[in-house]
Amino acid sequence: MAEERVVYVGNKPVMNYVLAVLTQFNEGASEVVIKARGKAISRAVDVAEIVRNRFMPNVDVKDIKIDTEELVSEGRSVNVSTIEIVLVKKE
Amino acid sequence: MAEERVVYVGNKPVMNYVLAVLTQFNEGASEVVIKARGKAISRAVDVAEIVRNRFMPNVDVKDIKIDTEELVSEGRSVNVSTIEIVLVKKE
């Protein structure tokens, strides 16, 4: 099952998301996409860096994309930045 | 003077950095690199997105890199994530 899996990063402690990424790779994913928006973007970068540097040196950053999402909150629209970090396991 | 300029994003309001990037492009830079670390990473992404979407539709994200820096603080070393977003002006 070499499909792509997604881990959404929010406001929990960073190691929760690191563990989620490691679990995906250990279950056979060849790529894991880390997604976050707003203030959680910094934490998403931390997750990618900790996975690569501390746990899986055979994982590389394949691609990073940033974008803007329009959220509607109480009738007003607010723009929120998003990030997608694609991690790939080297064979 | 089509050289590369750098804007370091910190804790000031996001529009300060947007203005800094716009100024660099208006002074003739062909590329502007937005750099940040730690919690300012989210703001750096906001800066890139606001420049592109609201002020300069002819500017593209050319490359995004993430990395880790080791800071020594009171004798202890702390790892901090960093981001570099390269914006380029299309001709």
Core attributes:
homodimer, 91 residues, 45% strand, 4 strands, four-stranded mixed sheet, 2 helices, alpha+beta, 32% helix, Translation Initiation Factor IF3
Which SSEs are present, and which pair or pack?
The structure is a homodimer of 91-residue chains.
Chain A: E1 4-8, H1 14-26, E2 31-37, H2 40-55, E3 59-73, E4 76-89
Parallel strand pairs in A: 1-2
Antiparallel strand pairs in A: 2-4, 3-4
Helix pairs in contact in A: 1-2
TL;DR?
The structure is a homodimer of 91-residue chains. The first copy, chain A, has 91 residues and is an alpha+beta fold.
What does this protein look like?
Two copies of one chain form a homodimer. Helix content of chain A is 32%, strand content 45%. Chain A is an alpha+beta fold. Chain A has a single domain (4-89), classed as Alba-like domain (Translation Initiation Factor IF3), CATH 3.30.110.20. In chain A, strands 1-2-4-3 form a four-stranded mixed beta sheet, covered by helices on one side. In chain A, α1 (14-26) packs across α2. At the A-B interface, α2, β3 and β4 of A face α2, β3 and β4 of B.
